[in-house]
Design goal:
By secondary structure, the protein is mainly alpha-helical. The chain has helices spanning 5-39, 42-75, 82-109, 112-116, 124-146, 149-178, 184-216, and strands spanning 219-223, 226-230. The chain contains seven helices and two strands, in the order H-H-H-H-H-H-H-E-E. Helix 1 runs antiparallel to helix 2 and helix 5 runs antiparallel to helix 6 (149-178).
Length: 237
């Protein structure tokens, strides 16, 4: 086995390439999940579950490869740089967040079956929140691929918009139930999917935090209504 410094650099680059591929895989899964919901298509929902199996396999492979890399580096007393160590650790953490996003998308697709029995149309705000979450995942995937802390900071601010959309959807549903314009079961489904959207946005912000940490060494803290970057000593935030 080649354990030269360049070999470890190449292996980390390989992990990064695999991570970017996993991000695209999860984005395709999320898009398919929302398509299944809007079309109320159970066959599409079943395809989402199959896509999740592929995500799970890559998730395990990525983690095993990262552990093996660190094991080899320790065994050979390789002098990995601080940035290299950060890269491996953040790849593992981002990989875990992507797997959780995939799980949330599967949960969304599993609501297709009860939605088939309900004929009420989806509110416009519901389509907006779905498109917003897809866009946030796309942006965070780009931030990961490009090592872009600026894009990562944009994603951090997007989380609040998703939460606001969810609140608007829940308020509107409550008003329509009170007015007899929406059934409780349909409102419950909307609430559940909107909740998964917020959860997915949360995972995307966690990924953004890791991108910022990897590229700048800074830690991101979530304060009320805003995100605060705590710079690494000696470096700007």
């Amino acid at each position: 086995m080649n354990t030269s410094p360049q070999a470890f650099t190449d292996r980390i680059a390989g992990l990064k390439t695999d991570l970017v591929g996993q991000g695209r895989r999860v984005q395709a899964l999320l898009e398919a999940a929302f398509e299944a919901v809007f079309t109320r298509d159970p066959e599409q929902a079943r395809r989402v579950s199959g896509m999740d199996d592929d995500v799970d396999k890559v998730d395990v492979q990525l983690e095993q490869s990262a552990v093996q890399l660190l094991t080899d580096a320790t065994r050979e007393s390789a002098q990995l740089s601080e940035h290299q160590l950060r890269a491996v650790l953040t790849i593992v953490k981002i990989n875990n967040e992507l797997e959780r996003i995939a799980d949330a998308a599967v949960d969304v697709s599993e609501l297709v079956e009860p939605l088939q029995r309900l004929s009420a149309p989806f509110p416009d705000t519901f389509r907006v929140i779905a498109n917003s979450v897809i866009g946030i995942l796309r942006d965070v995937n780009s931030a990961v691929m490009r090592d872009d802390p600026v894009m990562a900071k944009v994603v951090l601010q997007s989380q609040h918009a998703v939460a606001a959309f969810k609140d608007a959807i829940v308020r509107a549903a409550e008003e329509k139930i009170a007015a007899g314009q929406m059934g409780v079961d349909f409102a419950f489904a909307l609430h559940e999917i909107a909740g998964q959207c917020v959860l997915i946005a949360d995972h995307c912000t966690n990924i953004s935090e890791q991108v910022i940490y990897l590229t700048t060494g800074s830690i991101v803290r979530h304060m009320p209504a805003q995100w605060v970057v705590v710079p690494k000593p000696g470096r700007p935030g």
